[in-house]
Amino acid sequence: MAEGIMYSLDWLFAIGVLFFLLSAWAIGANDVANLYVTSVSLRSLTLVQAGCLAVLTEFIGAIALGEKVTETIRKGVFTLDPFKDSPGTLILAMVIAEAGSAIWLTACTRAGFPVSTT
């Protein structure tokens, strides 16, 4: 029975993945703008050089520190115990939180506002 419920929520998971990708783009765009704007504006780096460095440093940061961040969020921010009998509610809550974050980050990045995502 629970297996059938989970398959019926695949669409919600797919929407969550789309918002996750939007969020990842917005975080990267915002971080790159905040980190390299001075170097590019002072002409220490060209835009292409800053882009290449950004790809490299963002990737290394995600690989090197991503596990620790995920662990902190998984165990340090909230517990999953209340959702053991209601996985659909957990998926919905996660998708809504990710959608809100992605939309806010995208809007701020588009408007040129610096947002701390650490």
From TrEMBL:
Molecular function GO labels: phosphate transmembrane transporter activity
Subcellular location: Membrane
Keywords associated with the record: Membrane, Phosphate transport, Transmembrane, Transmembrane helix, Transport
Signal sequence range: none
Residue stretches spanning the membrane: 7-27, 47-65
Annotated membrane topology: Multi-pass membrane protein
Major location category of this protein: membrane
GO cellular component: membrane
Highest taxon of source: Eukaryota
GO biological process: phosphate ion transmembrane transport
Presence of keyword Kinase: no
A Pfam family per the record: PHO4
Full protein name: Phosphate transporter
